[in-house]
Amino acid sequence: MHSRIRLRRTAPALLSAGLLLAAGCAQETSRPARTAAADVLLQAAADPGPSPFTGSSAGAPVAAPGTHPDSRSPAPPGGGKPLTRTGSTPGLYGGTRAVPSCDVETQIRMLAADPAREAAFARTVSVGPARVPAFLRALTPVLLRADTLVTGHGYRAGSVTAFRSVLQAGTAVMVDGRGLPRVRCACGNPLDPPGVADVAAGKGERWAGFDPARTVVIEPAARPVAELVIVDVERRAWIARPSGDEGAGDRAPAVPPPYGPGTDITGPLPELPPAGTKEPRPPKRSERPEEPAEPTPSRSRPPGDCPPSAGPTPPGEPAGATGAPARSPGETNCPTPTGAPTEPRPDEPRSDEPEPDEPPRDPVPSMTGEPQTSIRLPRHERPVDGGAARRR
Asked: Which residue intervals are annotated with compositional bias (Basic and acidic residues) in the record (predicted)?
């Protein structure tokens, strides 16, 4: 009886203690999120910011590859809210051809020199400490081409801190296989998507061209990206950089984007193919339609310029006197009427039939007035110069 009474009295107490403990845990776990969302820090490209994980692994500083404020397109409507761009958007990132924006191996060595920092870094990016080198080598070093809102993670007194920040265009970062920034090279801090934040209330020194309405939030691509199409900030040309490559595999893209490398990435962009669709490729030589061969110039007449049919030119009359143009040597492309035999040229002997005997000549009047007939000799008895003798 007494045990039942004790159980009734202690059960509400235990329940109340459990609720208080759960509330305390909920408050403790939600505190970093409120702290991270409280402020937005504006960070210039070369500023390492608070609580850096490591030293800088960024390459030589370059001019910010964003579009100059004076040449920007009209600001998009949105009430100052950041724009959204997918990590595979061509021109979202920049770089220099065959030059890495970050030294990945240097970043690996700096983390390995402090096992506590390396372990904290591994927890933040959700990999084991032994997998940190492989994680970093799988990233692609590039430069931001627009002011970008992120969640940064610092390291202070053995603990990881989280804060929202806007990274200036030109900041060197490493992006993953879906085009998402994961590490800032100037400080080694891990990066995550930002969530909702008030960019207009950002704290820190503002740089020229900063505009909350042109700040970009990068979302991961729907599928892994084999290569990033970035802008060569020195030559103002397109570069196709393979994912996980530091620049050694840079080349020109097989299919250039539908806009130029100088396009304002924070302005309206032409429609891109939906994610997952294959880009159109130029047809191979064997697939191209055959083009008509160009006509070869010759001495023949063009169609429709053939002389009309005419008989032989009478003796003593020059060629072309009948109104038909005289043929020049080699002109043999005039069409022959269907069914009509092809007439050989006058200076060519017939080869398909024997030479006929001479036709009978008209009687030549003699001196006596008596008609004479020509005597036809057999072919083998004809004199060689008979024709010349007759002409004499």
From this structure: 278-291, 344-361
